[in-house]
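ok here's the first one, seq then struct tokens
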Amino acid sequence: MVTLLHIDSSVLPGEASASRSVAAAFRTAWEEQHPEGTVIYRDLAANPVPHITADAWSAGYTAPSERTPEQSAAFAAREKLIEELEQADAILIGAPMHNFSVPSTLKTWLDNVLLLGRTAGESPSARSTPTVVVASRGGSYAPGTPREGFDFVQNYLEAVLHRTLGLDVDFIIPELTMAPRNPAMSELIPLYEASRKRAFEDATTKAKELAERLAA
């Protein structure tokens, strides 16, 4: 049986969140292909993981037999997150843009799972795991737009997930999600609707393609 690690980080619930909605469409299509599979789900907004501490960080570079009780206790929670990453056959991450970057809860999760010599380094333990990131944003940061260069979500996640953790990363980007709620963006609603439609189609397609790839 295959295992999907699904992570949401939007502070908005349900359909109010573009990243959650599109990720949910991916998961639904995935579960249709793998009805007996396992889904490990973490809602980082509802249940944030602990910020990494000095004990949790230093324990990662200390032999288990040499750790202090404080280090062992702090690393236990971190180890669980790392093991979930390593056990996954595929990863799905909802990563909305918050103030031009990722939510702090997602950054905290990444701080916990990134461990040089294990998940990062010459032979990352989760290397090549297919990973789909739903990176939603209220506006558009594409080349030629007024805020081109303000996107610190996709570049950051590409660097951490692909270049550091070695994951095989693919992005789905629903944009202009604020258009229906911001009168100043009303003329952009058709572009928003097209982006939303494309994102849901991509989610379903990528889930089915990935399921077939893993079954081969």
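and now the second one, same deal
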Amino acid sequence: MLAAARQAVLVATVPLPYQPLRQALDKRTNVEARMCFYLSGLFTAAEEIQHHLDAGVPVVVESYFARCLTTHRALGAQLGITLPSWLPTPATYHLVCDDDERQRRLAGRNKPVSRWDSLIETVTDRVTDAYASFPMHRVDTTGRSPDEVLRVIMDTETQGAHPHADSEPVGAHPHVLPAVPRHAAGTCRP
């Protein structure tokens, strides 16, 4: 929805060729291996993102480095990561809601719950605390429809749109978007 509203290209941060390995890796238990995999996908996507930005095309992604790092660190990853300065710098929106609503939304999802989804539920406070180290626009989605959340985001920071951008709706390809973690997720747009 944000990509369409901003007339931006939507870039998957787990690129399509990564999807079969992602499904296999998510069945494993090594958090560092999982973190490295997601970082690899993000660095691959960052090249595509930079290509679009260099061409003057705005970009929307559903997940970026902040989500990967905070989630995996909260799950116990010990890898020290220093992000390179050349990475596109996003405007990040951290979508949150109160816990009762979050639990209702989780129960209503049509998505298999993985081992990682269950684990993240045990460390939601650590994830929230870790997000504090990243600059983000916090958007409370409690009691708001997706259209209302979109309006809040659009009112937070409006930038020009590119007339030739690909605004394919989020979810148009069922295997492109990464799983939504079992906590309030951020949306970012470089």
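notes on #2: The beta strands are 9-10, 59-60, 91-96, 137-140, 186-189. The radius of gyration is 16 Å.
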